[in-house]
Amino acid sequence: MDINIVVVGLGVIGGSYAMALREKGYKNIYAIDLNEDSLRKAESLNIINKGCTEGKKFLKDADIIILSVYPELVKEFINNNKNLFKDGCIITDTTGIKGVIVDDIKKSLPDNVDFVFGHPMAGREKKGIDFATSEVFKGANYIITPIDTNKEKSIKLIEKIALEIGFKKVKRITPQFHDKMVGFTSQLPHAIAVALINSDEEDRDTGSFIGDSYRDLTRIANINAELWCELFLGNKENLLEAINSFEVEMNLIKNAIECEDREKLIRYFNKSSIRREKLE
Amino acid sequence: MDINIVVVGLGVIGGSYAMALREKGYKNIYAIDLNEDSLRKAESLNIINKGCTEGKKFLKDADIIILSVYPELVKEFINNNKNLFKDGCIITDTTGIKGVIVDDIKKSLPDNVDFVFGHPMAGREKKGIDFATSEVFKGANYIITPIDTNKEKSIKLIEKIALEIGFKKVKRITPQFHDKMVGFTSQLPHAIAVALINSDEEDRDTGSFIGDSYRDLTRIANINAELWCELFLGNKENLLEAINSFEVEMNLIKNAIECEDREKLIRYFNKSSIRREKLE
């Protein structure tokens, strides 16, 4: 537990990482963020030893670097700091798309470090360290998309940490399959939630006529616009394919309603019920 | 608390009603259900005094009748029992659609009873008394769709009971507006959830690659097929209109992704975020 961990980006995910690592007994946790308030807050919560707005100070001693920044900034971070990393440093990220960053980063990665691409499938609709909580990782899925230069022991270490801080399952898949899956399981639901609430008519006091179904389906419509814009556009083809498949199913339902075809509706409902039961 | 209440249909909603009423101190609660096991279970939980598979026994003394049965059975119940009701009896229902039943029932309703149409906007994806819980009503919305023959004091009584058992808000609206709203807030989310999970490809271990967004958006895809078939077809026009409006918004998002139009995407996300913040 004496290894030096540096969290880059103390938002809701970075903050949650620091919190969860501290709870598990990691002694040396440092953070880099442009926001002084976030750093001071994390210091006063004692979830980091020290924070700094500038990288040099901590990076040269870092054994593990956890990048919890927007996708575009992951590349920028590597490019800006490639001469600062300690030999044998393991870098990991928390980015929700892999295809657009993995190849670029592979090209610019210095030889003395190992980048294990990771995606903690956990998040909150709110942003910022004020909403950080180690609870968010409990029971969640964690994905690693190995690259050919990864050392097995680096991957194992990132897996071990994921399980330590509460993730239930860690899977290794290719960046391509990752992006196809999250286009469906994560980005499509966000597109749906946004479309659902935006299709409401104004000024009809909708809040008085909702049950848990509408609450659940629109929770993520409160969305970090900049981040999700990057994720949507960075996974364009997969997301469009997922939306199209969804629309095909929606049209089946629509046609069954139009034709008052009870049998078909029941068949779709039974299919969805069985799938949901099996899901977890 | 000495009034006689008869719950007709001891499923998840009827059972939850009996439970919640008992917790609030109602002493005389009876139930009618075709399933003997449900009746015996409710008796042993002491959430009803006595259950019976046949109506006559309890109906003649009932001050309040709560119908928690499928929409089609509400009409049937009134027609089959119209000579049995006690003078001044207040009947209410829990049906998720109103247009298709209100007019029919108005026609066949005997003069000595008052039917206050109600819709508790609470439910669970599981069916049957085993999943009944008084918690389900806590903080939920309750809708009443008055008809011209309703006595104000009957409506007030149903409102009072709704608030007693935990509903947060009770609204009075027309059956037409009710159906328009629930087409959007309840049936559309169910159609979306079913279409979403049915659009998954098979055999790719989706459960390992999901976060809370997919969990939340598909929870209600585990659906009571018979009931929701009735609700969808009984509110056909409103639901189709809601699906169409949703598809318009989804196409806006799709086009913005196709054209990589960041500005538009950000605009949709900001709109949805503001709406979600304001919702409750």
Automatic annotation (TrEMBL), chains A, B:
Keywords: Oxidoreductase
SUPFAM superfamilies according to UniProt: 6-phosphogluconate dehydrogenase C-terminal domain-like, NAD(P)-binding Rossmann-fold domains
Domain Prephenate/arogenate dehydrogenase: from-to ranges: 3-280
Pathway(s) per entry: Amino-acid biosynthesis
UniProt GO BP: tyrosine biosynthetic process
One Pfam family named in its UniProt record: PDH_N
GO molecular function: NAD+ binding; prephenate dehydrogenase (NAD+) activity; prephenate dehydrogenase (NADP+) activity
Cross-referenced InterPro entries: 6-PGluconate_DH-like_C_sf (IPR008927), NAD(P)-bd_dom_sf (IPR036291), PDH_C (IPR046825), PDH_N (IPR046826), Preph/Arog_dehydrog (IPR050812), Prephen_DH (IPR003099)
UniProt record similarity statement: Belongs to the prephenate/arogenate dehydrogenase family.
PANTHER family: PREPHENATE DEHYDROGENASE (PTHR21363), PREPHENATE DEHYDROGENASE [NADP(+)] (PTHR21363:SF0)
Name of protein: Prephenate dehydrogenase
